[in-house]
Amino acid sequence: MTCRKCKGLMIQERQPAVSSSTVILRCLNCGLIIDPLIELNRNNHMRAKAA
User: Fold this and answer.
1) Mind listing the pLDDT tens digit for each residue in 31-42?
2) What is the rounded CA–CA span in Å between residue 46 and residue 26?
3) Which has the closest alpha carbon to 39: 50, 47, 51?
4) Helix (H, G, I), strand (E, B) or coil at 20
5) Which of 18, 32, 34, 35 could potentially form a cystine with 27 if both were Cys, beta carbons 3.0 to 4.6 Å apart?
6) Residue 11 forms beta bridges with which residues?
7) How many CA atoms lie within 13 A of 2 on its CB side?
C-alpha cells in the first residue's frame, strides 16, 4: 500500500497496547499511522463534506 501523505511504503503492524486483534498501517518514510478508527472518521468527514 502507498502512503497518502508522502507516497511511501505502508506496512501492517499489530498494536497489542490497543487490542490484540488491531492492525494498523504505518508509513516507513513519514510515520503516518492509519488505524480503523482514523479511517472511519475520515470516511464520515468526507461523506458529511460531500452532502
Assistant:
1) 999 988 888 999
2) 22
3) 47
4) coil
5) 32
6) 26
7) 3
DSSP category for residue 35? -
Rounded CA-CA distance 50/47 in Å is: 5
- How far apart CA 12 and CA 15 sit, in angstroms, is 10
Cα-to-chain-centroid distance, residue 27: 9
Global pTM value: 0.71
Per DSSP, helices labelled H in the chain are 36-50
Q: Which of 29, 23, 50 is nearest to 42 (CA)?
A: 50
Q: Please name the residue that has the C-alpha cell 464520515.
A: 44
